[in-house]
Amino acid sequence: MQPFDLFPTSLQKILVKLEDQDRKEREAKLDRMQRLRQIPRETGEFLYQFLTSFVPQFPQFIGLEIGSSGGYSTLWQGMALVTSACGKLISLDHDPKKYRLAYENIKATGIDQYVTLSQGDAKDYLKNSQGKFSYVFLDAEKEDYLEFFMLLKDHVSSGTVLIADNVISHKDDVLNFLEMIHEDCRVSSIILPVGQGLAYVRWI
Ligand SMILES: C[S@@+](CC[C@H](N)C(=O)[O-])C[C@H]1O[C@@H](n2cnc3c(N)ncnc32)[C@H](O)[C@@H]1O
Predict the structure, then answer these.
(1) What is the three-state SS of 123-151?
(2) How many helices (H) and strands (E) does the chain have?
(3) What is the span of the domain harbouring residue 194?
(4) How many domains does the chain have?
(5) 165 in ligand 1 pocket by Cβ < 6 Å?
(6) Mind listing the pLDDT tens digit for each residue in 119-147?
(7) Cys-Cys link to 102, which of 30, 45, 71, 128 (CB 3.0-4.6 A)?
(8) Is the CB of 39 under 6 A from ligand 1?
(9) CATH number where 145 lies
């Protein structure tokens, strides 16, 4: 049985609707900045499985998602918190239209107790917030990955895990980030061939 099969039907319908919208937008060759550009279901299932074992290790788990889009990846991660019956996920997107769609989807599934969406630039958020995170999912513009990694240094502690998407599909765009996580002695990292390729980075 896959994690998807365990979800309530109402949530399955929202996930499938978002998958259909994402596929149709790609087929119609809609401008990439307007598209949902979601993670594939395989990545959602990986994040769900990982977080259901990771989250309960923390008395007060706080996760951060950079790039909510329409809330597809947020729903997968949020469901891991629901299953664990603890934790909080803060998800950021600067696009007002995508923020509204994510808001409607999170509200409709009733997981807003575990997920807080915020509209705004994630770089400004990291520069102005004092928050510490046990986990970060990075899925914004690929050329910003290195900058986000640098900005995260004040928001992590030993054991924090960063998962960054598209590091195989967009390898050329994230080369400076990949070099940094390989060389930086404060972190250990591995590239996982899940979906579009995930960088798994853990602060030592
Ligand atoms: C690849 S999509 C995210 C897809 C989403 N994680 C999912 O799987 O459903 C990237 C998103 O990052 C947002 N984004 C890009 N740069 C951002 C920034 N600096 N601050 C906040 N959001 C940003 C975009 O608006 C876009 O919705």
Answers:
(1) HHHHHHCCCCCCEEEECCCHHHHHHHHHH
(2) 8, 7
(3) 3-203
(4) 1
(5) no
(6) 999 999 999 999 999 999 999 999 999 99
(7) 71
(8) yes
(9) 3.40.50.150
